[in-house]
Design brief:
Distance between the termini: 34 Å
Largest sheet: 8 strands, mixed
Number of strands: 25
Strand order of the largest sheet: 8-7-10-13-23-20-17-18
Shape: globular
Number of helices: 3
Oligomer: single chain
Length: 361
């Protein structure tokens, strides 16, 4: 779809999975106690925040779910709608804590069968200590994988959560768990390390990517693992040099124009309402953020303007924070958010301008 401004009016050209099948006249309206919303004829609305990412255009995309390179367009209504509805307890920095020393480490290997029919996580630990946890993802499969962490609410079992995920496009799972960050998607043979403060409780690690012959989200084919966190809740931060801070807001990123490829960065969701992720994509030579938006708005037709997924930070709810160890080669990149908005028609935040370009040296 595209959202094209014309005076105070907008034209909404739908290419979404909702199949509006028509052009709709829309306008911005302000409702008491709410953010600005884009009102569509027929009663549908889109939320608008007054802050938009630098270098973005008015182009958007339909609800296509999470994007992965080239032919693997992930249309995961269930999984991505769930991420959009998750919340998380705010993480606040406290005393420094040495990387991985005297703390827990969650090592996870992501793998899949050659045809993608079966996906799996291999966890070295299933019981962790509360506080700062180093989370390491290594992808030995043939398609992109992520490691999204969620904390189950008291009394909710991992099996009940998985059942809710698979039922009714995930709507039943929205109130059963809190987002807890984790590594964003990486390509085969890729890796991503993050640091996150985990509260005591029961957790699930899962992958919302889709791929292989089945086209279903990977958690539905085995990439779903439970673990527990025990002990006293503490809010800590990694010791050592933090190169900078990257803030996600609705709908954009505040980040350095130049990022060090092997440095540690703090990633925060400073939004007051929306859940956000920081998925990094490496651009193909000569391509820009505008090319990514145009490619997505065009239904992923034509040669992709990206080389592939490059890790980053998983979904955090408002107030959440984590630390991301970059594993990036020199070149031009974009940070994007594919988490769907919590309001109908649940467009991914990239459609609302949440794309930011940067360079890696």
């Amino acid at each position: 779809m595209a959202i094209c401004r014309g005076g105070s009016k907008y034209v909404f050209r739908s290419r979404t999975a909702f199949e509006f099948g028509r052009k709709a006249r829309v306008r911005w309206s302000k409702q008491p106690g709410r953010t600005d919303r884009l009102a569509l004829s027929g009663g549908a609305v889109m939320k608008r925040d007054m802050h938009f990412g630098t270098g973005t255009s008015a182009a958007g995309l339909g609800y296509l779910g999470r994007m992965v390179p080239a032919r693997r367009v992930a249309a995961l209504a269930a999984g991505m709608l769930l991420v959009g509805g998750l919340t998380a307890a705010p993480a606040q920095a406290a005393t420094a804590h040495e990387h991985g020393e005297n703390g827990s480490v969650l090592d996870v290997i992501a793998d899949n069968s050659p045809n993608g029919e079966n996906e799996s996580y291999r966890l070295k630990e299933h019981e962790l200590q509360a506080g700062l946890v180093k989370v390491r993802l290594r992808n030995v499969g043939t398609v992109a994988h992520q490691l999204q962490l969620v904390r189950l609410h008291d009394g909710v079992t991992a099996e009940a959560y998985r059942t809710a995920l698979l039922a009714s496009h995930g709507a039943a799972a929205l109130m059963l768990a809190d987002a807890a960050g984790g590594p964003a998607a990486v390509e085969p043979r890729g890796r991503q390390s993050t640091y996150v403060n985990l509260l005591a409780g029961n957790y699930v690690a899962l992958c919302f990517q889709s791929g292989g012959d089945h086209g279903a989200p990977h958690f539905a084919h085995g990439m779903f693992a439970a673990f527990t966190v025990q002990g006293r809740d503490e809010q800590e931060q990694p010791a050592g040099h933090v190169a900078g801070t990257i803030d996600a807001f609705s709908f954009g990123f505040h980040m350095p124009a130049v990022v060090r490829g092997n440095a540690l960065y703090r990633f925060r969701n400073v939004a007051t309402v929306d859940t956000h992720e920081m998925q990094l994509l490496k651009l193909a030579p000569g391509k820009t953020a505008a090319d990514v938006l145009a490619w997505v708005a065009g239904g992923f037709a034509g040669p992709p303007p990206i080389v592939g997924t490059a890790g980053g930070g998983g979904a955090l709810a408002p107030g959440g924070q984590m630390w991301v160890k970059m594993h990036l080669t020199p070149g031009n990149y974009v940070a994007v958010c594919f988490v769907p908005d919590d309001e109908f028609p649940h467009l991914p935040h990239i459609a609302l301008g949440m794309v930011q370009s940067f360079q890696v040296v």
